[in-house]
Amino acid sequence: MESLIGHTLHNRYHVQRLLSRQVGRRTFLATDLETQLPVVVKVLLFGPEFTWDDLKLFEREAETLKALDHPAIPRYLDSFDISTDLGQGFALVQSYIDAMSLEVAAQAGRRFSETELVDIARQLLTILVYLHEHAPAVIHRDIKPSNVLFSDRSGHRAGDLYLIDFGSVQTVADKKNGTITIVGSYGYIPLEQFTGQTVPASDLYSLGMTLVYLIAGKHPADLSQVNGRVQFDSRAISKRFSRWLEKMTYLQLDKRFESAKVALAALESQDGSYCSYPNLRPENSQIEVLRERDRIAIKILQPLFATSIGFLSFIAVSFLATMTISASGALIMTTGILLVMYVIQKLPFYSVITIERNGKIRKFSKISKIQWDVQSLAVRNIHLLTYNPGYTFDRYINEHGHTIRGEVAISPKLTILVGRVECVVGHSLLSHAELWWLGQELSDFLDLELQVVYSTPKLPENREHY
Fold first, then answer.
1. Do 200 and 336 belong to one domain?
2. Residue 281 resides in a domain
3. Closest to 20 measured CA to CA, from 43, 48, 45, 53
4. Which of 123, 153, 218, 440 could be joined to 159 by an S-S link, Cβ 3.0–4.6 Å?
């Protein structure tokens, strides 16, 4: 097929040189004689190695590129039948992008900083958001370093990125009931793709493995996996980015980010938390969730009056203010104390829960750098994670069979049961949405199902009954 070099196809495209070759297919650089611009011409020949799946994928690539319009994706220009000395075939013409692939750069010894890696991830996720939200959704299925081009490197950016090759590489696997076509490149595709169950999150796995290749300098197929996690030397990147990358490359589909938009939101989270469910976080929430591979911390802004120090501060301020009014001579002495109490009232107060995998769960309160009320329990004793959505009722039958009347409101509550100890997450002022979000984060980290319960409340003794 290389004999096409030097020939003009369709009386318009003069073939210059070979760019790449695959079984039954070739990709050439050509010149459009009408515009004098370089173009890419992909050729599929109906030879001995031809299969109908080849034609199906080739036509699908042409139809897909026709429907897409994105600056980081090659543009469809033309398609036509061809006749050569080697037989009949089909040609697809698309715009040419003069840029180097990530694979070529890595093989030449190029190493990318974390800032550049994050930029690569952000740009590719932006492209995937466009593809996955297209109608109908487009799943690339073959994201890998050789299919990502970059150019115009500037500052700490990797440069402008482009995603190419919407035709996909194929491998045919024999099955008892015939054959199935597996599209993609080994090492970069997830398990579900081997069974033909490709979903948008499959592209996230491929993108994540592309980043792993750039970090480790090894083909993903040469890296081991333990409990669904790829093992590589991650010392060159931060723990937060490592945790995000781990979420991208889980073998299990249900443990990955559910979409490119969610993965992008986690990558760009303002507090740098890289939480697993940023889409569930209420927009104005003041809760911070910081996750690493083996640690999670939940930091909740707490109403000061909800704590003993807040209440005592309020009583002290009120008392001293009264004494100051009644004894003007003590004004100077009490001013300093009042000022201290006022400052305490204004300082942000936090309730913090930290859980270290294979370690301990700690719960404490914090003002500035001061912390107290530390509760420390062994993580191995955690056996239940529950969420009570809260409810209201106006009557209740107690254990004696009496009907108790009067409205009773049960606040929503998120609880971790550690042995016989109940560790409550948050406070009664948190919204349902905030508690549900925290419940999903903890469920994912602890690998425990979040149980929704409606526990029986303890009611006041003096309720009217009959």
1. no
2. no
3. 43
4. 153
In terms of domains, do 183 and 61 share one?
Answer: no
- Asked which of 95, 122, 147 is the last residue of a domain, the reply is 95
**Domain final position from 95, 115, 148:** 95
Domain range for residue 336? 308-346
Q: Residues 104, 185: one domain? A: yes
pLDDT in tens, the chain (466 residues): 667 899 999 999 999 999 998 878 899 999 999 999 999 999 998 877 788 888 888 998 999 999 999 999 999 999 999 987 777 899 999 999 999 999 999 999 999 999 999 999 999 999 999 999 999 899 999 999 999 999 866 666 778 999 999 987 333 333 333 445 667 788 999 999 988 888 999 999 999 999 999 999 999 989 888 877 888 888 889 888 988 999 899 999 988 988 999 899 889 876 555 566 777 888 888 888 887 767 889 988 876 544 444 444 444 555 555 555 555 555 555 555 555 555 555 556 678 899 987 778 888 876 655 665 677 888 777 889 999 988 777 776 766 777 777 777 778 899 999 888 888 898 778 899 999 999 998 988 888 889 998 766 555 555 443 3
Q: Are residues 77 and 53 in the same domain?
A: yes
